[in-house]
Amino acid sequence: MLHTQAPHPLRYPALVLNADFQPLSYYPLSLWSWQQAIKAVFLERVHVLSEYEHEVRSPSMSLRLPSVIALKEYIAPPPRAAFTRFNLFLRDEFSCQYCGGKQELTFDHVIPRSRGGRTTWDNVVAACSACNLKKGNRLPREAHMHPARAPYEPSPHELRDKGRRFPPNYLHESWTDYLYWDTELEP
Fold it and tell me: For residues 92 and 102, what is the distance between their CA atoms, to the nearest angstrom?
């Protein structure tokens, strides 16, 4: 059994790439703890592309921690993006669709549920809590509040590209050859 006291899982994450060497996701960045990465190595489910200097040891062996791994089998992206709060905020670029604010985001039903609106991509937008409260259960024309962009269902590809606009605060140097951030666009 490998000793697990030395490294902390958050200090040595492994960047996970699909078999085509693209990250499984950009935002959040597809990372596994060092324990998950080592387990995948031993189960022969991944190729190790880069390693940290840090090692874990057992009585019979020593192993450097993987920093970049690629799946051996390709995982096809889903045909449709899952409707989740996170994906909705990503679609709307973490901005209130009424005032442009970025604080205290909630989601707003453009046609309120109390008036027959459904919780779907085509009826929900990101809204700050102040705008959501101000709009209440009124239609946009009644509240004189119209979303900056009409709600729509994004493709998984679009969400991946939008995620590239939000690089994480920490990127290990061994990951840079596998990540391509859209640095021209400000989040």
Answer: 10
